Amino acid sequence: MEVFFQTLVGGLGFGAVYALVAMGFSIVYRTMGLVNFAHGQVVMIGAYAASTFYMTAHVPFFISIPVAMVVTGLIGLVIERVLRPLENKDFDLMLIGTIGFGMVLESLATIIWGATGHAVPSPVDTEPLDVFGIRIRTYSIVVLAVAALATVALVLFLQRTKRGAAMQAVAMDHEAATAVGIHVGRSNAVAFAIGAGLAALAGALVAPMLYVNPTLGGSLGIKGFAAAILGGFGNIPGAVVGGLAIGVLDSYAAGRFQAYSELVVFLVFTVIIMIKPTGLFGERTVNRA
Amino acid sequence: MPRTATARLLLCATALAVATAGACSAPGSDSSSQESSDGPFKIAVVNAQSGQLSSLGQWEWKGAKLAADEWNAKGGIDGRTIELELFDDQGDPTVGTNIARKLSSEGFVAMIGTAESAVTVAMIPILRQAKIPNITSGQSPAIAEAGSPYAFYNGPTSNTYDESLARYLVDDKGHRKIALISNNGSYGKGERDAFTSALADRGITPVDDQVVTTDQKDFSAALTSIRQKAPDVLFVGAEEVAAGLIVKQARELGITATIAGAAPMGTPVYLETAGVTNAEGTVVSSPYLSNDTDEASRAFAEAYQRAHGEEAEMHGAKAYDGANIVFTALESSNGAGGAELAEAIRGTEYDGLLGDFDFDESGVGIHETSIGVITAGKLTAEPAS
């Protein structure tokens, strides 16, 4: 029983991070129908940016996060601007373009910060809470809380604001949206910037839990992508559920199957997707390709 | 007219390509006679310069570079300079095998590296075929098991590390409740096997034996299971970063057992990743505990500091020893490569930073390690009993 709950707690801590990564994938996908394969690398840049401000400029950790989000938001805008001419013309090229951007970002990180990486001290330096023998890291609670806040904020933005409604409209039918005077390009740019901002949030939060180096984005990106698909690609609450599910699944598989855990996680994932191809909260909002 | 010109150009290019291909087709087969006239000795340093294992690779390169610079300053080997070339294997066995093929076609006499056992194991068959002696910083017994006469270690194998560790923990300190956690990479697996067998020799069965993946991030399940067994000692068999993450999470989950492990746990990367408080008291088995053990290590540390502007550590020292052994052997083989060089390396008795090298049939030169304990963020030697 103790193992069961402790594993759940551990899985949720990382699941919250996967959820944030998945939300970034989803917001871009639902708006543009595009999978941003550079997303994992943007997460990595976010982790570097936040930890660098935190460690070298001695800015408090929770101020360095918004700074990092601005940095990656700008990167998101650049990616969208460069790919914009391809919008509605060649989707395959856009996909390849995002993969290319991923490589560029990884190389840039190596040039700026070196290939070695650094460890980030935990900003919340209190003893873990002990609840009936289950140890809960205070930092994990912070991560879960931030992820929850980000989800609520994003859903409110999409449903309650004019800009958000415009993005929904573009997602549903971009030609009709253009006809009623919505600037599709701008809408896409906002989606990319938000996605990149979420990536920085995920990267910054995960930095003290892991070791920051230029290849950090790889596995986080894959898990986040799987989470987004599992929740129903393009669905924001779905991305959160998917992220937590992948995190928890990962932890249980690790306990049960040890060295074969990765295999089991993706097998389970494949089976779920075969039974329900649209993911748990399946609604395919976009199909533009 | 332009048509024929193009055709002729094409023909020339083809001829050139064939000629070059012919010239460097099989350098391994007769490299000893052909290459030994003059010009610099080409020696490859293959190590990860990117990825999670790149700190190792960069230390290795700095150590090897220092040795080569010192030899070149003294006039090289028989008047010929040493030319080191660095290859980035990214810690990836596939990249490693590609590099091995490249080395065999470009006339390298020897290779220094890699620091990652899995990569070295993958490269061995190609290097053996090309007759390129290689001195690795890997520790996995799998390298010796490959049985290549061209593969050498610049330090002890996991068997040696873990035998010393078991002797200290069980025989000296009397611990008997010992749990293991290791990852399933080449290094982690070697550590697990070696430590388990060292414990078995003492009639001890581990109270828990958890295996995790190399890419795993959350160790709650494995560590909670270990916590329930309340061991006195937790043995960690994983690379620097992975070991750091495991120990950090173990302490967060309230595991108070003494942490023990081999060389990776003595590095600054481990210390930073785990956090100084969490790493406190870690028992480390290592052939190179500090830059202050004797005259030679002090001199090395000073030269390293001067050359690279940073503090020396074990991996730099290993690569420095390894490089020096290769250069010494090249001198005694009169510049011959291939099988002659491999034999010369095996015959080299070298008083190095890690100890007195005396190679056996399996290519292992160092047969003992010392025990250190991390105290106040620094690895300090534990007096031998």
UniProtKB/TrEMBL annotation, chain A:
Localisation per UniProt entry: Cell membrane
Annotated TM spans: 6-27, 61-79, 91-116, 136-158, 189-212, 224-247, 259-275
CDD domains: TM_PBP1_LivH_like (cd06582)
Cited InterPro entries: ABC_transp_permease, BCAA_transport_permease
A GO CC term attached to the entry: plasma membrane
Pfam annotation, one family: BPD_transp_2
GO terms of biological process kind: amino acid transport
Family: Belongs to the binding-protein-dependent transport system permease family. LivHM subfamily.
Protein name listed in UniProt: Branched-chain amino acid ABC transporter permease
Classification of source organism: Bacteria, Bacillati, Actinomycetota, Actinomycetes, Pseudonocardiales
Automatic annotation (TrEMBL), chain B:
Residues covered by the Leucine-binding protein domain: 40-375
GO biological process: amino acid transport
Signal peptide: 1-23
Keyword terms: Amino-acid transport, Signal, Transport
Highest taxon, organism lineage: Bacteria
Cross-referenced PANTHER family: AMINO ACID BINDING PROTEIN, LEU/ILE/VAL-BINDING ABC TRANSPORTER SUBUNIT
Family stated for the protein in its record: Belongs to the leucine-binding protein family.
Protein name as it appears in the record: Leucine-binding protein domain-containing protein
